[in-house]
Records
---
Amino acid sequence: MDAMRRPGTTFDVKSGMFVVLVRPEHPENIGLVARNMKNTGFIHLRLVGVNDLDQKTFQTAIHSQDILKSAQIYSRLEEATADFCVVFAATAKRRKNFTVLSLEDAVERLYQYPKSTKIGLLFGNERTGLTSEELKHSNFRFVLPQSTEQPSYNLASAVLLTLYTISIRAPRTFLTTWQEKPLPRKKQEECIKMILHKLEKDGFLHKTNKSHVTEMIYDVFGRLSMTERDRRLLLALFSRGMSESKELER
Amino acid sequence: MDAMRRPGTTFDVKSGMFVVLVRPEHPENIGLVARNMKNTGFIHLRLVGVNDLDQKTFQTAIHSQDILKSAQIYSRLEEATADFCVVFAATAKRRKNFTVLSLEDAVERLYQYPKSTKIGLLFGNERTGLTSEELKHSNFRFVLPQSTEQPSYNLASAVLLTLYTISIRAPRTFLTTWQEKPLPRKKQEECIKMILHKLEKDGFLHKTNKSHVTEMIYDVFGRLSMTERDRRLLLALFSRGMSESKELER
C-alpha cells in the first residue's frame, strides 16, 4: 500500500498522464487541482476554454505554481486530446449513450496500456460537467463512488480522488497485457468520422436517429482504444458495401 | 469495491464517527469539508476554536448546509473529544514523541472496534497542523501518503482522503475482534494524568525530562485505547510504591 513511495514505476507512469480541465469556472479550483496534482505526483496540466491564469489561481496553488506555469492552454477540447492515445473522462451522471466504468475499473484498465502511452484524464465544468459533445473525445467514462446523488464532488476533490486512486493502485510489477499502443485520439476520431460518414451515406444514420446513434458509435469504437490494425480493419469493413461484406462471411 | 453503495454496515459505522476541525482558519475550508463529508456519507462535524459560521462557509458547502447547521462548536479540544472512545489525529509531520500510523493501518484499526464505538477524527489548523499539546487528546496519529514533502494536503483534501479511505475499506462482514469498548477519552485522560502525577511525585518526572516524557506517556497509554479493566490495572500499578510492585513479582 506504499505505492506512492516507490518512485521507479509510478513516476514513469505519471509522466505519461495528463489532467485536462474543461471550461473550469473558478480560478481557485484550478489552483487546488495543481496542489492536489503536486501532492500525488502528477505533473502535466492542460486547460481548455480558459483565459490567462489570474492571481486567485496562484493563491490556492501553494508550492505548486510550477504546475500552473507549465500548464498548456487550448481553446478547443479536440486539440487538447489530439496526441493522447487513451482518454478517460469523469462523469457524475449516468449517460444515455455512453457506457460508464467505476473509478476502480477505469484505473485497472489504465494500467493495462504500455508504459509510454499518453493518457488524458478529463474533468468538466463545475456546474455542467462534461457535455455529450465533449465526451465524444474520450475512450472511456468513469464515475467516482459517492454516498448520495447530490452534491457531486467538488472539481478539485474529483481530481484528487482519481489521482490518489491511480497512485495507490499502481502495480508493483509492470507486466503489460496489451502490447499494442492505441493510436492518437486524432486518428481514432478521424476513423470514427469516416464510419459515421459511411453510415449516413448508406441511410443507416438519418435525421431522427442521428445524434443518438452517433454518440453510441463514439462509445463503442472509443472503447476499442483503436490500434493501427483495428483502424485498417474498420475502414475496410465500412468502406465495403453490404453485399461485399456478406461475401466475406462465406 | 462498492462499499459506499451498501448502506447497511457503512451507515452504522459512519454514524459513530465524528470529524473534528481544530482551529480551522479559512471559512471556505469548513464548507468544503462539509461537502466532502456529504459526498462520503459522514454526518457529524465538531469545530474547535471557531466563532460563528459565516456566509463564506455556507457558500462552499453546496447541498451540505445541514451538516454545518448541526455542527457542534467547542472552545477547548478536550471538551470536543471527551465522549469519544478512540481518537485518531491526522499529522503531516513526523513527531518526536508520538508514534504515527499510515492511513491504511489507521483505517484497519478503526474497524476493529465495536460498531457502537464513538470515534473522533482530528484535523488541525491549515498552517500549523495539530500541536503536540493537541495530539495528547488522541489515541493514534496517522499520516496520508503523498508524493512530496511540500506542500502538505489542503485541509479539505486531507479530510476527503481519510473519509474516502474509511468508506472504501469498510469490511463486508462486521466481525468484531476487540469486544471491549474503550473508555471515553475524558476517563482515559484522567487516568493518564494520575499516572503522570504519581511519576512526578516519585521523582521519575523532573524539570528536564518532563515535557518530553509526558508526551511519550500520552503516546503509549493512548495507544492502549484503555478499557475499564486496563484503567483499574494501571491505577493499581501506579498507586503502589516500587517495593510493593516488586512483591507482586514473587
---
Amino acid sequence: MLDEKTMAILKIRAKLLDAARCWFNQNDYVEVQGPTTIPAVGDRPGSFEVKYFDKKAYLAQGLQPYAAAFVASLGKIYTIAPTFRAEKLSDRRHLTEYWRIEVAQQGELNAIIRCEEELVAHVCHSLSKEPAEMFRHFNRSTMDLAKVQSPFPKLTCDQVIDMLQKDGFNVSWGQKLDWELENHVSLKFDQPFFITKFPVGVDTFFHKSDPERPELTLSADLLAPEGYGELGSCAQRITEKKVISKKMAEENVDPADQKWYMNFMEHRAFPQSGFAIGLERLIQWICKLAHIKEATAFPRLPDEI
Amino acid sequence: MLDEKTMAILKIRAKLLDAARCWFNQNDYVEVQGPTTIPAVGDRPGSFEVKYFDKKAYLAQGLQPYAAAFVASLGKIYTIAPTFRAEKLSDRRHLTEYWRIEVAQQGELNAIIRCEEELVAHVCHSLSKEPAEMFRHFNRSTMDLAKVQSPFPKLTCDQVIDMLQKDGFNVSWGQKLDWELENHVSLKFDQPFFITKFPVGVDTFFHKSDPERPELTLSADLLAPEGYGELGSCAQRITEKKVISKKMAEENVDPADQKWYMNFMEHRAFPQSGFAIGLERLIQWICKLAHIKEATAFPRLPDEI
C-alpha cells in the first residue's frame, strides 16, 4: 500500500498532466511519441545501453533528432514520455528514469520561451483550483500556485554571473552553473524564472548561436524558485548543416558518431525550437518535496531499481 | 519529411489518445506511470536487457506487478506508456516497441470487460465525429466507426474451438489460437469482439481460475474484426498467495525468480482485474493498415532500429 502522502502526490501528478494536455489541446499542439530505443552510433555516455537482439541500442534521452521530422510534418508538437539518464548522481534532484514534457515547433527562441512559461503558468493555475485539501501533506498553498504569473522573470547568463560575483561567489564567465550557484539564484525568486543565453560550449552542442553575439547561444533554462533549481531547458536549434559540421570540428565531435543526427538536418529548413521539462522536477517544486524520488511511485535511482 | 499518409495516421493517433483519456477522466480513472526499467530476477525471455550501471535490468512489458499497489491505493487506474517485446517476429502485427493502454481496477472479469468495450466504443465514436477528410488515405469510413456498438459480441474459447472444427480446422481444446485461426474467426465479425475463458496454461500464469470450471481462466482477449485479430487481453488476477505458489509448482516456475512479483501479493486482498490494449494494433485496425509499423512514425522491428 502506498502511503497517504504518496497517494496525494500521484493525484497531483495526474491532475498536472491533465492540465498540461489541456493547454496543448487549446493551443493546437499535436501529441506524438518518438522511439524509446535508439540506434547506437558511437558511444553515448549518460545513456543506458540495451541489448537489442544482436545489436547495441540505447534508451532515448529526448525526442531529438526525431523532433525535426515531426515539426516539419505536423507543426507544433509535444510528447510526454519516459526518459533515461545513466548518471551516477546521488543528489536530491536526479532520477535515472523520469518523465519529460517535451515541445518542438517552428519559430525562434522568444516564441518557445513564451510557450514554456504559459504552459507552466497554466498548470499552476489549474492546480490552484483544486481543493486545498489536496495539498495538505505539503508546505504549499493553492494561493502560491495562483500567484504564478506569466511572463516569468528573465535574467541573462551575464546578469547571473554579475549577481553571483556581487554576492561573493568565485565564478567566471563561460563556466557551467552548478547546483550550489543555481540554488543561490533560485532562492531570490518566488515564482519560476528563466536564465537565458548561455555561452557556447555549456551543454549547448545543438543550440544556435546568437547572431548578435556569437559567443552566446539562443538558449534558456527554466528554474523553479525557492531553492528548487532547474525544471527544464529550451533552445533554438541549429538549422544549417554546415554550421553543425563546423561545430563538430571545433568541439572534436566525430561526424561518424553523429551521422544519425545529420540525417534529420534536411527537416531544418526553417527556424526551429524546443524545450523539455522534467515532470518530477516540476512536481518536486510544486509539492516542495525534499527528494525528487517522492514525485513518482516506483523511483529509479543508481542504487535503487 | 513524413509522407501525407503517415501524417494522417499521426493525427488520428493523437485524437485517439485524447478520446481515450477523455473517457478515463469521465469515468474517474487516475492516470499513473509505472517504471520502464525493472529489476532482473531470473531471466525474462521476451524482455530486452538493459545495462543498469553494474546490474542487469529489463524493459517492462506492462504495469504488472506494480498495478496491484496502484489499485490498492488509488482505485481505478490507467497508464499509457511504451512497452517492449524482444521477440523476433517478422509478421505484420508485432513491433518490438509499442505503446499500450493499460487499466487495472478492483472487481471481477465482467467489470473489466465492460470497461474495455466501453473505452474502445467511445474512441471509435469520437473518431467517427472527425471530418471524413481525416480518413481519406484509408479504406475506412467514419460511418464504420460510428456503428461500433458496446457491448461487444462474446464467444467462449469453447465456442471458438467448435466453430473452427466445424469450419474444417484441425484444432483441439487447450491449444493456443495462432494467428491463422484468430484471423479466420476475426473475419466473421464487423466490430470488435471478445473470446473469453481461455484454458489454464495458455499464457495465463497470473490469471485466476474460473471457480465453476477450474480448467478455465477468468480471461478474455479483445479482437478486432475484418481479419485484424488481437487488440489486447484482460483478466482477473490471482489474489491468493498460496494459489500462485501452487501454480508455480505445477508450471515449474522457480519461486526465487518471482519473489519480486510475490512482494506485491499483499496488495491483493480483493478481486482485481486489468487489461492492456496495444495502441498501434488499434490504429492498424481503425485505419486498415497492411503493416503495424505504419501506425507509428519511427517503428522498431527486430531488424529495424
---
Amino acid sequence: MIAILKPGTTPAQMQHLVDWLKHMNLDVHISKGTEVTVLGLIGDTSRVDMDLLKSLDMVESVKRVSEPYKQANRKFHPKDTIVQAGDVRIGGGYFAMIAGPCSVESEEQIIAVARAVKESGANILRGGAFKPRTSPYAFQGMNGEGIRLLLEAKKATGLPIVTEIMNITALDMFADVDIIQVGARNMQNFDLLKELGKTQKPILLKRGLANTLQELLMSAEYIMSEGNEQVILCERGIRTFETATRNTLDLSAVSVLHKLTHLPVVVDPSHATGKADLVAPMAYAATAAGADGIMIEVHNNPACALCDGAQSLTPHQFDEVCHKVRKIREAIV
Amino acid sequence: MIAILKPGTTPAQMQHLVDWLKHMNLDVHISKGTEVTVLGLIGDTSRVDMDLLKSLDMVESVKRVSEPYKQANRKFHPKDTIVQAGDVRIGGGYFAMIAGPCSVESEEQIIAVARAVKESGANILRGGAFKPRTSPYAFQGMNGEGIRLLLEAKKATGLPIVTEIMNITALDMFADVDIIQVGARNMQNFDLLKELGKTQKPILLKRGLANTLQELLMSAEYIMSEGNEQVILCERGIRTFETATRNTLDLSAVSVLHKLTHLPVVVDPSHATGKADLVAPMAYAATAAGADGIMIEVHNNPACALCDGAQSLTPHQFDEVCHKVRKIREAIV
Amino acid sequence: MIAILKPGTTPAQMQHLVDWLKHMNLDVHISKGTEVTVLGLIGDTSRVDMDLLKSLDMVESVKRVSEPYKQANRKFHPKDTIVQAGDVRIGGGYFAMIAGPCSVESEEQIIAVARAVKESGANILRGGAFKPRTSPYAFQGMNGEGIRLLLEAKKATGLPIVTEIMNITALDMFADVDIIQVGARNMQNFDLLKELGKTQKPILLKRGLANTLQELLMSAEYIMSEGNEQVILCERGIRTFETATRNTLDLSAVSVLHKLTHLPVVVDPSHATGKADLVAPMAYAATAAGADGIMIEVHNNPACALCDGAQSLTPHQFDEVCHKVRKIREAIV
Amino acid sequence: MIAILKPGTTPAQMQHLVDWLKHMNLDVHISKGTEVTVLGLIGDTSRVDMDLLKSLDMVESVKRVSEPYKQANRKFHPKDTIVQAGDVRIGGGYFAMIAGPCSVESEEQIIAVARAVKESGANILRGGAFKPRTSPYAFQGMNGEGIRLLLEAKKATGLPIVTEIMNITALDMFADVDIIQVGARNMQNFDLLKELGKTQKPILLKRGLANTLQELLMSAEYIMSEGNEQVILCERGIRTFETATRNTLDLSAVSVLHKLTHLPVVVDPSHATGKADLVAPMAYAATAAGADGIMIEVHNNPACALCDGAQSLTPHQFDEVCHKVRKIREAIV
C-alpha cells in the first residue's frame, strides 16, 4: 500500500502517522520527493482501513499495491478452482448450464421444467423458494415447501439444485440443497456470509447491483476466510442510468474476474436484462466472453407464471440456446 | 396502474392478460387507440409485479399511477410523523442533531464524546457497536460490549442512543437502545426489516448505495406493514461515477421524500463525503434543504481513531456546525 | 403519448393544458378514472417536450407510447439498412471488421498496420487524425496531415477509411474519407450532427459516455432528418461506478438497438475496456451478441505508441481475433 | 506521477519504459520493494497520457500526485479569481444571482422578466437563444433574434446577460453578450473551448452530465491555456440511476471545487431537478454549501412557456428565494 502525503505535512505529523502504521505491524518505507512524500507500507495491509487513511488531512491519496483479498486471489492460487456440486463440476473448463423457473410453484411445474431443461442439456436445476421482493405485498415464495419440491425434482431427474437463502436462521432447510445462492441484495450481508463460510456447501454469490468487482471478491473472501472455498461468482447486471434494460450486464466482469481470481464465474442473463428476447443473445455473449456457466430462467408456461415469467424462456427456446452455447464454446477453444 | 400493449397484440392474447389481471382482483379498463391499446388496472395494484408485466411480450410498457407504498405514503397520511426517542422528537418541525464516534472504543471515549456533543447541542448520541466492514480482516466493532458502553454514556448524559443492527439474532442486545439503525448495505435485507417491524422501536433506515427513493420507501413499508410506524429515513450518499467524494450526497432526496412521505428525513454528511472538511458545508446544505436532522461523526481525537476517524469532526468543529445549523434553520423559516 | 394528471387537478387547469396541447395540433383523448385522469395525446408527438410536460404541477407523469425518432425507427423501416463504404457493406448480414491504430503517426506506420490488418481479414481501416483529448497539453493528433496519410494507406491497400471529425469547419478535409466518425463526446453536438446530415457520407456515430440508447437514436435522427440515412451506431462503453475497466461495455445495447432501429450496430471493445487483454474476449462477446461489426485498435508496436498504444492488439493478436470472430459468426447463424 | 509495476516485470521491460519516459523529459525515480517496483515520474507530467500508461501490460496502476491542470489549480493561484461581467463581480465573496427564462420568446417577455428579477435582486439576466434539444423536431430557439432581444432587455434594465453558444461559427453574434455559456453537452467540445479561450469574454462552463470534477477542471484548463482566465464553473446535476429527479444535483462539488480551484462556482438548481418545487430548497442548499452564485429559471407565465416553463419559478416565488438566499448567506458567514 502506498500513501502519498500532501506538500505541507510537517515532520511531526508524518512521524505520528508512521508510528500508528508501525503499531499495526507494518514496515514503512519513506521516499521524499521534491513535491510530495510517498510512504510505502510493507506487511499485511489487508487490515488497513483505506478510507480512514484517505480521510486524514495530511494524506493526498492512497493506493493499494496488493489486493485486499487473499484466499480468492489468483496470485496465491494460480490454478482454477473447480467447484463440485453433486457430480457436476464448475470451473477449470467445466461448464455449468443452470436452468429452471424463477419461483417454485408446484410439484408438477418444477418436475416438468427440470425434465425439460435436463433433456436440453442443463446440468443444474435452479428455482426460487425464498424470494426477495421489493414490495412487502408481493408473493414471497413457497419457502420450506418450495425447497421440498426442488428436492423432489432433484430425485426425479438427478440434477443438483441451487436456491437462494435470505436469512441464516433458515440454514437447516438447506441441508440437502447442493448449491446455496446469495442474492444481489445480500452480497454485503456480512453476517450471512460468515455463517455460510462455516458450511461446506458450494455458494453461488451474486454481484450486488452497485458493487465493484473488488467488493464482490471481498464478499467471497468473507466466506472463504471462514473455511469454505467452494464459491462461484455470478455477474447479473449492475445499476446504471440506462433504462432500456432492467440492469446493465457487465460482461467484461468475466474476463476481469478470471484474471483476479481462481474462482469460477457464471452469468445470469435473465435477471440482468428482464426481457426474454435479450436472454439468448446475452447467453451467447457471456459464453463467448469465457464464462464458466450460464444461469437461465426457463418456465413451462411463461405467460402465466406468478413471478418473472416473461423473462423466462420456454423449454423450446432454451433448447436452442443450449445448442448454440455448445457451438460457441467450440469456436473459442 | 397503466399497461400499454404493443401494436401487434391479438385479441386472444389481450383477453388472456385481462383474465389473469382480473384473477388478481383488479378491474381492467380497456382503451383502444389508433396505435396502441391502454389497459387501466383499478384496485389494489400493490401486489402486481411490474417487472413481470413489463417483461411480457405483448406489453410495451407499464406505469404506476398510484405509489406501491401505502403506510409510508403522504397521500394517505398528510400530517408529518413525529418519531419519539426517549424524550426527543424528530420530524414535524423537531430537529435531530445526532452526533458521536464512528465506533465505540472505550468507556472513557464514548462518555467524553457524549458530554462534548451534548454541550454543543446534540440531542441524540450515535456510535457503532456492530460494524459492517467490506473486509473480513478489518475491525468489526466491539459488539455487545459496545452497546453496554453506549448505555453507560446514555446514563451519564441523558442522551438517547442510536446504533446499528446487522443481524436479527442480535435483537435482544438492543432492548435498551432508543433507535435501531439499519445500514445502507442492509436496506433490502427484507427479513431483517420484517422483524424490526414487529418491535416498537424507532428505526433509522439508511438509503442503500444504489437504491432509488421509491425503493427506500418500499423498505420503510416492510417495517411499517408489520406494525411499526416509527421510521426515520436517512440520506447518506449514493454511488456514482464521481471519485472526488466517497459517495454523492443527494440532497434533493430531502425535498422529494418530504413530498412523497410523512416520515422524517435526516442526512448523514460524514459517510457521504468521507472527508472532514466537507462535513460542515454539507451539514449546512442539508439543513437549508429542509432536513429533519443531521447525523455527524464526532471524535475526541480524530487522528488516532481506529475507524473512520478522519471524516469525524472534533468537538470544537462540531460546536461551530451546531451554531450555524441553528442560524440556517432560522433563515429558512 | 400519455399524461397522467394528479388527483387534485381542477377542471380549469385541465382545460388549460388540453387547449395548449390542441394548439400543438394534437388530439387529446380524456379518460377519467376514480383516482386519476389520463390524457391520451394523438398525432405527431415528436415535437412535444416531455420534460416540460412532466414538470407541470398538475402532471403526475408522462409516458411516450410511440418513439420520438421516426427515420431511425424500425417500426417504419422494418428492413435492415445496409451502409455502403467504398465497396464494403455493413449491416443486414454484412460484417465490418474495422481495425487500425489509435492515432496516425507516420506514413510507414499507417501503411504497415493497414497491410497487416487487411491480411488478417479487416475490411475497413481506422486511424485518428483529430484526437479529442481531456488535457489541452496532450498530443492532439496530426490533423490534416493524418488524413493525408490515411488516404495513402487507402491507396496502398484498397481499404476504405474511417476517421473522427471534431469540428464542422474541418469538413473539407474529409472529402475522400469513406466514413466520418462522430466521437462519444460529440454525440450531442447537435450543430455538428445537422451539418453531417447534409453530406452523403456514411457516419459512424459513437454512443456518449452517459447517453441512453434512446438519446443515441435521437442523435442519429438529427443526421437522418437532414437527409443522410447512412448512419452506423457504435457501442463503446458507458460510464458507471466500476473502476476495474475504463468504461462498462453494454452489450445488451446491440440486441436492444437491433429491435428499435434498422441501422447497423458495431462495437468498439478497445476504448470500452482500455486494456489489451480484455479486447479479444469482448470482441468475441460482441460478435456472439449479434453485432454488425467490430472496431479494434491494432498497432505494429504497442509498447511505443504515442497514444493509447497498449490497449491495442498486435497484428498477431488481431489475426487470432479475426479467426475466432469468423467461427463465432458461424456458430450463431 | 507514480507508476506501480507488476511483480513479473523484467529489467529489460522496465528499462524500455524508463527510456520512453525520459524521452518525454521526465526524471524517473525507481523504488524497488519486495513485492512491487514503484516509478516516481518527476517533471511536467501533464503531457503524460495516464490511460496509455495504465494500459501497458507491465503496469499495475498509475496515480497522479500533482493535478493535470495548472492554470485552474488553486495550488498555484491561492487567491480566489473574481470574474467581472459588466459591473457585476462573481467569486471571492461576490455573489451572482442569475435569473431569467429558459428561452427568449419575445421582446415583451424578456424585458418583463428582466425587470421583475432585477427588482427581486438578480444581478445577471439569463435566457436561451440557441437551444440544444435532444430531438431535431423540438423548438431550437430564436437564435440571433433571441440574442438581439436579450440585448434589448440589457439596455432596458442594465443587467449583464449570459446566453449559450453551441457552435463557434456563431461567435460574432456574441460580441455584446457579457458572459458566454458552454452547455453540459459541449463541456468536452474541445475545439469550441479553445476558440473561446482566445476571446476575453467571461465563460460560464457547465459540468457535463457524466463528467468528473477533474474533467470539468481540464475543460476550464482548455479555455485558460489559450489565455482567457475568466471562467465560471457551474454544477447542474449529474446522471445517476435515480429517476425521481431529472438529474442528481451534486452539491459537494461546490466545496470540492473550492479546494481544488480558484475559479468561482455557481449552481443551477432548475436544470438539475426539473421541477419548480425543488428549485427553492436546492437554491438554499447550494447557498449554504458556499456557492458563489445561483442560476434560476424565472418566467412570467410558467404554465404557458414554450420550453421548460414549469421548472421555472414565478417572479413572486423568485422574490422569496432571493430573500432567503440573502439570509442564508448571512447565517454562514
---
Amino acid sequence: MQDLIQGLKKENTTKIVMLVSDGLGGLPMKPGGKTELEQAETPNLDALAKRGAQGAMYPIARGITPGSGPGHLGLFGYDPVKYLIGRGALEATGVKFPLGPNDVAIRCNFCTLDAEGKISDRRAGRIPTEESTPLVLKLREISIPGVEIFVEPVKEHRFVVVLRAEGLGGKVADTDPQREGVPPLDPKPTEDCEGCRRTCQFAKKFFEEACKLLADEKKANGLTMRGFAKLPHIPRFEDVYGTRAAAIAVYPMYKGLAQLVGMDIVGEPATLSEEIDVLEQCWDDYDFFFVHFKYTDSRGEDGDFDEKVKMVQELDSIIPRIEKLGPDVLIVTCDHSTPAKLSSHSWHSCPTLIVADDVRVDMTEAYSETESECRGGLGHFPAVELMPQALAFAGRLEKFGA
Amino acid sequence: MQDLIQGLKKENTTKIVMLVSDGLGGLPMKPGGKTELEQAETPNLDALAKRGAQGAMYPIARGITPGSGPGHLGLFGYDPVKYLIGRGALEATGVKFPLGPNDVAIRCNFCTLDAEGKISDRRAGRIPTEESTPLVLKLREISIPGVEIFVEPVKEHRFVVVLRAEGLGGKVADTDPQREGVPPLDPKPTEDCEGCRRTCQFAKKFFEEACKLLADEKKANGLTMRGFAKLPHIPRFEDVYGTRAAAIAVYPMYKGLAQLVGMDIVGEPATLSEEIDVLEQCWDDYDFFFVHFKYTDSRGEDGDFDEKVKMVQELDSIIPRIEKLGPDVLIVTCDHSTPAKLSSHSWHSCPTLIVADDVRVDMTEAYSETESECRGGLGHFPAVELMPQALAFAGRLEKFGA
C-alpha cells in the first residue's frame, strides 16, 4: 500500500491535522450506560461530526490490542506487524538517541543486589532521577573492545544502553527474571544467530563492568536488561507521502515514534493548550501535523471514568483553535481504545472522524464509538488505510492507471 | 482470491447483469446539498434498492482514484495493482488489435514538425480521421529487420503501433516532450533492461522511416510515441468464473478492456437504449452481461451537475427493460466516482447495489452514496470482492472445504 501511495504522491499547499487522543475509545462502566466519549459534553467534536464523516478504525486488526508503538505506526500508515519496533529502540528514540543500523538498544533498570548477587529490589527503590542520573553517566566509563557503547539516562531507575558494532543481532532475551530473590539472568539469544551471540557477550561484559563500578552503591548496585532491539528500516514519512511533517507531543515516547518515521519534533509543550500554541507557531512551516494528547489514555489506564470524561472535554475545548487555522483535512482519532472499565488498552475500534471539503457527509450526529461503528460513512477499516484517505482528501494523490 | 473462486466455480443456467454507470458516484456541489444521484429522480433504482442490498465499494483501495483501466479490472475481479495495463496496450485493444505476449504497443500521435524538426503542433492540427487514416495505412510500408510491425488507425491524429519480437521490453519513456518548439525525444528505456533497449532501437528506426514517408505532408509530417506497454498475462474471464460473458459498450476503451479479459464484444450500439436492445438480442447466448454506460462519467468530467443528473435519470429509465429479462442477479455500480464538483475521477466509494432472490434486504430506501456508505447491508468492500458475491448470488460457487 505504501509503495502504491508513494508512486502517486503529489505535492500541493494543503494542510492536514491528525489529532490523536491517546486511548480515546471507551466502554460504558455498566450495561446500558454511556462511554466516556458519550458521557462527555463535546459540542465542538459533535459539530465536526455533523459536517464530516466517521469510521470505525482498527489499529492493527480486529481483536488485536496494540501497544503504543504499533498503534501509532498504523496511524502513520506503516504496517505495524511489518515494522515492529522493539521496546529498547522505542525507549532510545524516546530520549532522542539517533539509532543507526548497527545499533542494538537495550532498556536497563537499576536494581538492588544482595551480597549473593540476588535481586532484592527490581527497581532499586525507585531511585529518584537526581540520584540515578550521575550513576548512569558513570557507566559511560565502561569500554569494551570491539563495540561502541552509549549510555543514556531516562528517568528514575530506567536508562538505555546502545551497543554499536557491525553485524550485531537484536534477538536476545531479557535478563530481568521478573522476580526478586534470584540473580539477573545471563543474556541469551532467542534465535540461533552469530550476531545475537556477540550481542550477548558484549551485554554480559557490560553487566559485569557496571556491577564493579556500582559496587559501593546501596540502592543501585546492579542492573537488568530488557527489550533488546534493533531498529527496522522504516521509510521516511516525507519520502512516502511528500508532506513535511511536524509532531507535537508532550511525552517522549510519542516524540520518539514520530521521529522514527522522520517527522520533525516541534516545540516543548507541557499541556494540550501549549501543544496548540506550538501548532499555531509552526503552521506555515509544515503540511502535516501530528498532535498527540496523552491524558485520555492515562485516565483510562487509571480506570477513572469521570477523569477521562474531563480529559475528553479538554480535548473538545481546543477544537475551535485548530479549526481557526483552517486545515484542509482535520482528522480526530486515537491509536487504540483505553476504556476506564478495563484500565488498559483494548482491541475495540477507534472512532475516527475526517472533516474536509470533499468528504461525503454521513448520517452521524455526534462523535462517538457507536455512531462511527453503526452508521459512519467511512465504514470499518484498518489504521493503515487512514493516511491514504487523508492524502486523497487533501488532493495529494494522483490518479492510478489510465 | 481468483484462484480460490476458480476452484469453486460451478456452472448453471443463471444470468448475471452488471450494469456499470461510469463515474456514477458524486458529491454535493455545496455543503448540505445533494449528490447527482440523490438529486436525480430514480424511481426504478430506488425500487431496486428497497428489495436489494447496497454496499460502498472501493475500486482499488481507500483514497485511490482509479483510471478507467484499473477501475474496470477491479469490477471484473482482477487485482488492478497486479494487472496494471499500460495506455498503449489499452489503446491497441480498444481498436480490437489482438495483442500477443511478444508485443509492445505504442500510442502514437501525428504531429507537425517545422523545418528544423521541432514540433509546431503536437496534434497535427487535429487532423480529421478521413485524412489521417490513409497516412496511417501508408506507414504499414515500413519494414525493419528483426521485428514485425503493425500499424492501426484510431481516430483523428491518434494511431497505434505494435512492435512484435521475442524478448522486447515495454519500459520505455514517452517521446512526446509535452510542449511545442522542441523536437520529439528519442525513445529511452526507463529500466535497465536489454529488451527495453531493443524496443528503443526499433522505435527510433520506425520514427525515422515514418518521417521519410510523411516528408511531403503539411500537417502530419512527424509523430510522437507514448504509453509503451506490454500486456500482462490475464486469465480469461470464462476460465476463472465459468460464465460466457458478453460486453455491451459504446466506447472502444471499455470494449477493449472487456476483450482483454476474454469477454465477447457484442453489437455496435450507439446509445444506452441500443445497448439494451443488444442485451435483449443476445440474452440467450450468454450468462454474464457487462453493460457499460459512459455518459454519467462524461458529464461529471465536464463539471456539469445538472446534465449528470439527467444521465442518471436516463440510466434509471432503462432499468425496467433489464428487469423484464429476469436476470438472476442484477448489479448496479460504477468503476469509480466522477463528481461534477471535482470534474474528475475521484477516490470516493462506488454505490453498489445487488438484487437477487437470496440477497438479505438491507435498510436502504434509495440507491445513493450515503445510503450505501452508512447503512448498506453489504458494508464497505474492495471491487475485487464484487464478482465472488455476484457468482454466489447466482448459485455459481461450490462450498469451500468439507
